[in-house]
Design brief:
The protein is α/β, with parallel strands linked by helices and 337 residues long. Helices cover 41% and strands 18% of the residues. The protein has two domains: 12-18 and 23-126 and 251-309, Periplasmic binding protein-like II (D-Maltodextrin-Binding Protein, domain 2, 3-Layer(aba) Sandwich), CATH 3.40.190.10; 128-249 and 316-333, 3-Layer(aba) Sandwich (D-Maltodextrin-Binding Protein, domain 2), CATH 3.40.190. Strands 1, 2, 3, 4, 5, 6, 7, 8, 9, 10 and 11 form an eleven-stranded mixed beta sheet that branches. Strand 1, helix 2 (47-58) and strand 2 form a beta-alpha-beta unit. The longest helix is centred in the N-terminal third of the chain and has 23 residues, at 3-25. One of its GO terms (biological process) is thiamine transport. This is Extracellular solute-binding protein.
Length: 337
Amino acid sequence: MPQKKILLIIALMFACIAWFIFDSDKNETSIAVHGKTELLLYSNLDNSFLQALISEYNNDSDRNAVIKLLLPEEREQGKLPDLYLLEHNELQLLSKQQRLYAILSEAGDLLPSVFKDEQSQWFGVFYDPVVFLVNQSYARKYGQENILSWQDIIKLQNVRVAMENLSDSANTRNFLAAFASVRGEEKSLAYFRGLNRQIPQYSRFPFTPIRLTTVGDADLAITRRSYVFKYLENDFPAYIVFPSEGTPVSLYGVAVDAASKKYEDAQMFRDWLLMSSAPQKVALEQNTGYMFLLSNGLNGNHIEQPEKLWLNTAYNTLVQQEILTNKWLQSARFAVK
């Protein structure tokens, strides 16, 4: 075989080996397209919202890093994220396990202490409040001014309330735990025992109370703002009421993993979530119903009444929540109406 052909074959072999190594490394290293650092984000929020949020951030060509969503199967295989976007009880658990990295934040300084970690390991970004969805025909009959608070619902005569079974999901258990954290356990159980008489049947699925209220089979739904926003239409025959005393909320925050070596790039994404109007635009476009804590970024703290946002602070473990839920089942859910 001529020497030139041998050299050509050897060159092709080296080219194939180099391509194979490069192709394999693309999925293993932290370097993404165009030489930018890749940050992995773990979150259990709606995937469409997360992808839109990530796309908005990555579209800025001046950034040094791009965000990629860490898939559940990748996490099961032991791959660690650089960033978390999770409900605050999940972040607190990670903090107790010493899995979060403390980084100070100028925007975080504007947050009330209850909406952030005291060691600056996580910061609240947005929340999803429990609201009343009131049928418009019912409100016209009985008066909107009489349907403003938790106490108003108890006083209403012949009202049909639609609500999920509180033992069915993490969201409903968190709602009960937040209510009891603020109002007290005994008072809360007594309240739900009274409310039980106005609930013809508990719903198994999150969107059932909304459907029942909009078609007139219920007068009022106790539900989450995020669920309502997925159903919103121009001729929606119901309206939202934020309870005047305050209401349980699911607070979602951002944090950096302690094992990540990309603190500066991770901090930029965290501050973007806290201060930029872009995430709020994405949340609105995606009909999430989420409400941002710092809606004006660094232009001031606009959480006028933080005491009206009720967090689960007393039932932080699954065991504690299960005990509380069992008490609700015994004293309210299956109580004689």
